[in-house]
Amino acid sequence: MNFHSKAHTFVGHVRIKVENIEKSLEYYQEIIGFQILEQNQTSAKLTTDGKTSILSLEQPENGISKQGKSTGLYHFAILLPQRSDLANIVNHLNEKGIRFGSSDHLVSEALYLKDPDGNGIEIYIDREPSSWSWNNGEVAMTVDQLDFEDLSTSLIPGQSWSGLPAETVMGHIHLHVSELEKTEQFYREGLGFDVVNRYGGQALFISTGNYHHHIGLNTWNGVGAPTPPANSPGLESFTLILPNVEARNQVVGHLISIGASVAEENDTFITHDPSGNRIVLAI
């Protein structure tokens, strides 16, 4: 089942800020496996299929080092098409001497890294949705040890890492927020997402179409965490892809009805969640 298609609302693109564009481009090409679609002196659009950008990098003017304990990006998550792709990138990272974390979430198997500026990256593969366990509208997720020995059995003889596969998509985004009550209202009543998992009183996982999550939201940087400086590395914005114009118009109406701000910029609608995370509403 495709949870990143027209029938659903999903994250299609993430734009992050970096301190040094050239240093970051080297990392995202050689270590993560992106290709450059477009580039100028201070920004670049990255692609896996040579046609569509799912990640953009931007170097702000007078950039500073990443600030801690603020709202914004926890990580963006790159979804690979096959389990063998995850096994290949594990071998690649080991060959490059890159340290990374890992976890088995029951619904998925994941690797975790940080780019040169400390921006969080997840690279993962979904397990078959038929194997996910649901109870009263919530999907079971956990943080177990990833079985690398079993993962290695998915390697295809003669196939090795050659960058991110063309079918790679932006699987989800996970955000630091300053609180959860108004945040849940914004994403649920305003944007139309369903809460599919509550992690104690500190995190929410939300989705459309019974995906395990298109967006994660947490207060792990502290309730009341401030927004980061505009010239600090981190999240610039993320783009939500809605099914059609009618769906977007409905979302805009729902956002306005709960008191959220919505602005139109060059035929694009922009909103911000209660923690200041910038969201582009696209079709």
From TrEMBL:
Residues in coiled coil: none
UniProt cross-references to Pfam families, sorted A to Z: Glyoxalase
Stored InterPro entries: Glyas_Bleomycin-R_OHBP_Dase (IPR029068), Glyas_Fos-R_dOase_dom (IPR004360), Glyoxalase_1_CS (IPR018146), VOC_core (IPR037523)
Keywords on record: Metal-binding
Domain of life: Bacteria
Domain VOC as annotated: residue spans: 10-126, 169-283
Matches recorded under PROSITE patterns: GLYOXALASE_I_1 (PS00934), VOC (PS51819)
PANTHER family per the UniProt record, alphabetical: CATECHOL-2,3-DIOXYGENASE
Protein name: VOC family protein
Organism of origin: Oceanobacillus longus
Phylogenetic classification of the source organism: Bacteria, Bacillati, Bacillota, Bacilli, Bacillales
